[in-house]
Design goal:
This protein is of the alpha+beta class. The chain has twelve helices and 35 strands. The strands form seven sheets. Strands 5, 6, 7, 8, 10, 11, 12, 13, 17 and 18 form a ten-stranded antiparallel sheet that branches. Strands 26-25-22-21-20-19-27 form a seven-stranded parallel sheet. A six-stranded antiparallel sheet has the order 1-2-3-4-9-16, with no helix packed on it. β3 and β4 form a beta hairpin. α4 packs parallel to α6, α7 runs parallel beside α8 and α11 crosses α12. The chain starts with a strand and ends with a strand. It binds 1-deoxynojirimycin (NOJ) and calcium ion. Calcium ion binds next to loops.
C-alpha cells in the first residue's frame, strides 16, 4: 500500500511530493512541471531504536506570508512566503516548506526518550548526474579554503561541502544547502552506494553523527531553485528558515576596518614578538591615527597576545588570550582608540585548540569588554579542532556547538564577531545578528600564487549563498614581490560590493591608501557595509558577476563587478535607480589593464546618469570595476 501527498508553493510552480510506503518514504520535487529531484529516500537512524513502520498518523498544511526586517545585510526586508506541510510518523515529524524558489524540510524527533544518538541520516537528493556542480572537498586539512572546481555530478569523489551549486542539463540552477545548523553535524554531500546524491553528516570522533536531547529538530535541508545563475544569488530562503532574534540587538553595528595584518603577510612585520613585531603599542597608535585620517572606523590588531612565538601553528595549544606581549599595552591602546573614536577589533587565534580557548573564554571576552572592545575576530587555523582532548572536524557537532558558544557569550557581552576558519553559514545571523561575518572560503590571504582570477567569480554563486564573507578586500599593493596579487587594482574596490560582509576589511597597509592610491581609496571610504536592497545584475558561475546595492542610510547606490582571466564588456541599464539625477563615480579598468601585465591600469572619472540610462563597462582580464551613484 502506498500513499501520495503533494505540497505546492504559493505560486504553484514548485511541488514537493511525498510517497509513503510502510518501509520507506520518498520525496520528489517538480519545478514548472519538470521533475528536478526524482525518488529520494528520507530517513534517520537513531541508536537503539527499532525502526517503526512509516504509518502516517496525521498530515496538515498551512500557508505563511510575512515580511521581516534584518538589522543589517544585503537586503533590509525579506519576504517569507511558503506552504508548510507536517507529516507525522511515529519516528519523526517531517516538516516541509515549499517556497516559490526553494524546498526545505527537516526531521523533528519527538520526546519518546530523554536523549538520542543519531547514528546516521539518509537524505537523498536524486538529481540527474549529468548535471554540472561547483564544489569544494570536505574533510580536508584546509577546511573550506579550496578552489571551486566544476565537475559533473557523476564524477564526484568523496564528500563535498554545501552550498553545492548545480546546473542541470535543462539549464536550471539549484543549490543544496542547510539552514539553522545547531547541535548537529554539518551536512556534506556525496554519491551513496546506489550512486545517488545524498547527505553525509559530519561525524564525531566516536563515529556517530550527534548526541542530542529530545525533542530535537535537525537543521533544514534546503534546495534553492532558479532559472539563471544570477537569480540564484537572490535567494534569501536560508534566512527565512531561521528564527527572529531573541533579545535586544540594537547595539549591533556593521564595521569597516583596517588592520595590523597585511604587513605580516608581506613579511614586513611578524605576529610573534621580536624586532619586527607588528602589534606593538607604538604601531597600534600609528594605525589608529591612520584610521582617523582615512575615515575608517575600525582597527584589527593581530599578534598582540602570548603564544605566537616559534611555530605558532604547532605551539598554539598554549595561547593566552588575556596576556599581552611585553611591547603591547592593551589598556593604553584601547584608551587611545576610545579617545579617537576608533573601534578596536580584538583577535583570538585559537589554532584549533578549542579546549585551551574554552578554558579562557569568559576571561578573554571580559578582558576585551572591560577595555571597551566590541568586535573580535576569531580564528581556528589547524586541520582539526581539539575538543575534550579529541580531534574533531570544525564542521562536526562538537565544532558547531563550540562556535555557537562563542556567538552566545559574545551576544551577552555585546561583542560582535568575525569568525575565521568558521563553521559555514546557515543563516543563524538572523537570530544572532552579532555574528557579523565569517571567512569560510579561500580569501585573499591565499594571494601570491594560490588564487586564480576566476576564484572571486565562483564565490557569489557558491560560498555567498551561505551569507557574507570576510574576503579581506582592498589590497592595493598588487605587484608586491612576496605576495603578488592576481587582480587589477580597480577589482580590489569592486570586492567591497561584490563580496558582501557585515565587517569589511580594507586589508592593505595605510600608506597604500593615503600615499599611493588616495583617489581609489575614496570609494572604499564611502562604500557602505549595510544595504537596503541588492539587485544582482549579470553573471555566470566562475566567469563574472555584477551586482548593484542601495545604501541603507542614503539614496546612493553602489555597483561592483568582477571577471575571470578573460576581459569582457558588460552592459546593464540603471532602471533600479530612483528618479532624478545621480553623479556616477566610476573606478574602471583601463583598456590596456591586465591582472598580470598591467594591473595598475585604472580610469577614474565622473558623469551624470539617470534611471533610463544604460552603462557599458569594460573589465580587463582578472579585473573588475566599482561605481558609486551619488544622488544629487
Ligand atoms: C588565518 C586567518 O584567515 C587570517 O586572517 C589570520 O591572520 C591568520 N589565520 C592568523 O590568525
Ligand atoms: Ca583562513
Amino acid at each position: 500500500m502506498k500513499r501520495l501527498k503533494s505540497v505546492f508553493s504559493p505560486d504553484g510552480q514548485t511541488k514537493f511530493e511525498l510517497e509513503i510506503t510502510p518501509r520507506q518514504i520518498f520525496y520528489r520535487v517538480f519545478y514548472n512541471n519538470k521533475e528536478i529531484i526524482k525518488n529520494s529516500n528520507l530517513d534517520i537512524k537513531i541508536a537503539n531504536l527499532k525502526s517503526p513502520k512509516f504509518d502516517l498518523k496525521s498530515f496538515k498544511t498551512l500557508r505563511f506570508d510575512e515580511t521581516f526586517e534584518l538589522p543589517w545585510g544585503e537586503d533590509q526586508f525579506v519576504r517569507n512566503f511558503y506552504t508548510e506541510a507536517e507529516f507525522k510518523f511515529e519516528k519523526f515529524i517531517l516538516k516541509v516548506r515549499v517556497f516559490n524558489d526553494a524546498v526545505a524540510f527537516r526531521y523533528e524527533i519527538p520526546k519518546n526518550q530523554e536523549t538520542a544518538t543519531i547514528e546516521d541520516e539518509f537524505t537523498e537528493f536524486n538529481i540527474n548526474l549529468d548535471s554540472t556542480c561547483w564544489q569544494i572537498p570536505a574533510f580536508m586539512p584546509d577546511r573550506y579554503e579550496y578552489n571551486y572546481e566544476a565537475i559533473k555530478l557523476y564524477d564526484m569523489e568523496g564528500s563535498v561541502h554545501t552550498p553545492l551549486t548545480i546546473k542541470t542539463p535543462e539549464n536550471l540552477y539549484l543549490s543544496i544547502h542547510e539552514a539553522a545548523l545547531y547541535d548537529y553535524g554539518s551536512m556534506t554531500i556525496k554519491l551513496n552506494g546506489e550512486n545517488i546524491l545524498s547527505s553525509n553528516i559530519t561525524p564525531l570522533s566516536d563515529d556517530t553523527k550527534a548526541h542530542v536531547k529530545l525533542p530535537f529538530n535537525t537543521p533544514w535541508r534546503l534546495i534553492m531553485i532558479a532559472n539563471s545563475a544570477i537569480d540564484l544569488t537572490k535567494n534569501r530562503v536560508m534566512y527565512c528558515l531561521n528564527e527572529p532574534p531573541k533579545g535586544d540587538f540594537s547595539w549591533v553595528e556593521t564595521l569597516k576596518f583596517i588592520g595590523i595584518w597585511w604587513a605580516m603577510y608581506v613579511g614586513e612585520w611578524t605576529w610573534a614578538p621580536g624586532e619586527r613585531h607588528g602589534a606593538t603599542t607604538a604601531h597600534a597608535k600609528e594605525y589608529i591615527d591612520a584610521a582617523v585620517r582615512l575615515g575608517i572606523k575600525g582597527l584589527l590588531i593581530e599578534g598582540w597576545n602570548e603564544g605566537w612565538e616559534g611555530n605558532w601553528l604547532e605551539n598554539g595549544v598554549n595561547n593566552k588570550f588575556t596576556v599581552a606581549t611585553p611591547d603591547f599595552n592593551l589598556e593604553e591602546v584601547a584608551s587611545y582608540a576610545r579617545a579617537k573614536n576608533i573601534e578596536l577589533v580584538g583577535h583570538h587565534e585559537t589554532v584549533g585548540f578549542v579546549d585551551n580557548y574554552e578554558a579562557q573564554l569568559k576571561a578573554a571576552y571580559n578582558y576585551y569588554a572591560a577595555n571597551g572592545i566590541h568586535y573580535i575576530k576569531t580564528g581556528y587555523a589547524g586541520s582539526q579542532i581539539v575538543i575534550n582532548g579529541k580531534k574533531e572536524y570544525h564542521h562536526s557537532q562538537a565544532g558547531v556547538n563550540h562556535y555557537q558558544k562563542t556567538v552566545e557569550l559574545a551576544a551577552k557581552k555585546k561583542i560582535m564577531l568575525d569568525i575565521h576558519e568558521p563553521i559555514k553559514g546557515t543563516g543563524i545571523e538572523r537570530t544572532w545578528p552579532n555574528l557579523l561575518t565569517r571567512e569560510g572560503a579561500r580569501g585573499q590571504e591565499y594571494e601570491g600564487g594560490a588564487l586564480r582570477p576566476s576564484h572571486a567569480c565562483y564565490i557569489p554563486y557558491t560560498r555567498l549563498l551561505a551569507g557574507g564573507m570576510d574576503y579581506t578586500n582592498g589590497i592595493f599593493d598588487i605587484t608586491n614581490s612576496v605576495k603578488r596579487i592576481s587582480t587589477t587594482l580597480a577589482r580590489q574596490a569592486a570586492y567591497f560590493v561584490a563580496i558582501y560582509s557585515g565587517m569589511a576589511m580594507a586589508a592593505d597597509r595605510p600608506f597604500m591608501y593615503e600615499e599611493k592610491f588616495p583617489e581609489l581609496f575614496k570609494f572604499i571610504k564611502k562604500v557602505p557595509t549595510n544595504f537596503e536592497k541588492t539587485v544582482p545584475l549579470l553573471g555566470e558561475i566562475g566567469d563574472f558577476y555584477v551586482v548593484a546595492r542601495k545604501d541603507r542610510n542614503s539614496e546612493n547606490w553602489y555597483i561592483g563587478g568582477v571577471t575571470d582571466q578573460d576581459g569582457r564588456t558588460v552592459k546593464f541599464n540603471l532602471d533600479f535607480l530612483g528618479d532624478g539625477i545621480y553623479k556616477a563615480h566610476l573606478y574602471l579598468d583601463s583598456k590596456d589593464a591586465h591582472f598580470r601585465d598591467n594591473p595598475y591600469g585604472i580610469e577614474i572619472s565622473q558623469k551624470r546618469v539617470k534611471n533610463s540610462d544604460t552603462l557599458e563597462i569594460y573589465m580587463a582580464p582578472g579585473g573588475g570595476f566599482a561605481i558609486e551613484l551619488e544622488k544629487v
